[in-house]
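Hi R.,

Here's the input for the glycinamide ribonucleotide complex you asked about:
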Amino acid sequence: MAASLRIGVLLSGSGTNFRAIAEACHNGAIDGQVVFVGSDNPRAKGLDYGRRCGIPVFTVDYRSVIRRVCDGTTPTGPSDFVLDDVQAKQSLMPAHSDPGKLKSFLISRAAAEAQLLEKMAAYPFDLLVLAGFMRTLTPYFLDRVNVAPRQLRVMNIHPALLPAFPGIDGYGDTFRYGCKVAGCTVHFVDYGEDTGPIIAQRAFPIRETDTLESIRKRGLQLEWQLYPACIQLFAEGRLRLVKTRLQPPVGQQTSRTVVRIAPDGQTQAP
Ligand code: GAR
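And here is the predicted structure with glycinamide ribonucleotide in place:
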């Protein structure tokens, strides 16, 4: 991509990945700039770094939005929310989930996502980066960000070697399972939880002397290198989405979209 990449960031906590990305923009490792930092958590520490850098910061208090939907104060979703469409596309919750629970999950999340989208609209961006954003995103949100056909532009970093250990505690799940290797994954976000096309992964051995804390520490250090590198590949237009046939099928899935990384110098518009 010719112009500098405009990167939007969403985070929920300490924001060390956001910091690594902002520094990579600053020192030229990423040809881009962070144009906003948003959070579902008004007390997220990562927002302070954004404020100090003069990056626009905003929050949507997911907890209170979800409470208002679930206690019936504002029981409907956004005006452009179509439950049947979102429900048919989503794979965040199993299809056989309690219909009432699934409905209130989707409506409450879409209500919060509509507020996120409204705030994000003030800051045009090319790529949305989830940097420790501890909320799943529904098709309602993703369809309004991924507007160009066959292009994905929401990226996430996950603290495990996907497809193993999706969810909220990747390093913890890896450690408790007794794995001998841990790692992190950067992927595009699709309609499932941590199921989207994998861009890159880094692994490291787990030693007998390791603790969960030491694994988290080593993992984070790899994340700080891997995430900026993947964002730069996106900025260079080198991430291609390709459909592959799964043989044999994995569950119900017979094909899958995967990422191919074009060689240096072979770019295409992201
Ligand atoms: C990172 O380990 C990231 O991989 C993980 O949260 C941490 C955020 O740290 N993300 C997830 O678990 C997403 N499901 P940070 O706030 O210091 O960047």
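One thing worth noting: The chain has one domain: 5-239.

Cheers,
M.
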